[in-house]
Specification:
two-stranded parallel sheet; globular; mainly alpha; 19 helices; 2 domains
Length: about 400
Amino acid sequence: MSNLKPAASGEDAASTPTDGVAVTVRSALETAAGDGDPRGSTGAIRRTGRPPGQPRSPRQSTDFAELSAQIRGAGLLRRRRVSYWVRFGIITIALAALVVLFVRVGDTWWQMITAGIFAIVLTQAGFLGHDAAHRQVFQSSHWNNWASLVIGDLFVGMSVGWWNNKHNRHHANPNRIGYDPDINIPVVQPDSLVELRRRSRLVEWTLAHQSVGFVPFLFLQGLILHIQSLQRVFGRADVPHRHVEIGLILLRLGGFTGLAFLVLSPGRAAAFIGVQLAVFGFYLGAVFAINHMGMPIVPKSVKLDFFRRQVLTARDIRGGRLMSFAMGGLNYQIEHHLFPSMPRPQLRRAAPLIQAYCAERDVPYTRTGLREAFRSVTEYIDGVGLGRQDPFECPMIAARQVGAPVD
């Protein structure tokens, strides 16, 4: 990982990343991978696989079980159906009101503002669909499935089957090379740009400042995500409820596009759709980027226990209820990754409990401000371009793998 500087445990310390904190997180990762011994006998990273007959670390294998018992005892996994019905009602009314406003305003460039508002409401709908896909809304898997289909496919226009396949792999192995699809892009993975850097000094300089393209890239995410969604649902890969999804997506995309060209001139209609996709992509992409980018990247050969795997690779964002609304509850990323089915309204209550639990076990819990999170992301992207490498991923160390990891 390139020049990683994650924040320290605790709210105040987390706002100012330091080299010392980076060492703390690396040490925690190495300890987890090394079954309690930060260096082991010959190296910092251990080989995947536990020799026959060797038990896993008792403490690390029970850490999550103990935390889970506390969370359940506090009632934090109970469903909050009324809250979700209110959210669903507000989003439905907001979208209906926007359609009426769009028709009444008519053919004018002022509709670009309407496009931006559409994008914000649709992103909020996406957050709600994300909650349903994680079984946060109802006890019944059947009801959660259909809620996510209606919200994701009909409201947002993206395949839930595609999203679940991609997102579940991310949750299983966040920031792990070869397993997490969210980091399967060159600007994120260490060593991915080695050959390109060698071409010329100009290329090397450009890569060292590649974070400049981060924001423009986010504006393209709306289009990219819709294309990936359509490729999956119309492809040969297995997609549950494929025909239902195709029908809902075509109704949503066709209806929205048709309405735009019916009310606006062709040029303005194309611009309207472009603005909506750009703002939607930036909003959604920014929220997901700051949750994990700039946090430790786990080598493919290293396997961590579930508790540390989720805590060490994510960061929470400060900001209270306003930030929680803006980010769809994903500002509590650590809590969400530990308990994906925990209803969004419960995450705020779970955070101090989980932070205290991490402190008791010397596991760094990263909580930082929005500005610091974006700074960490851009520094990390530039660091990958420069070829910086974290000691936790150094091939020289990885070549000395011995022993067995937890889990």
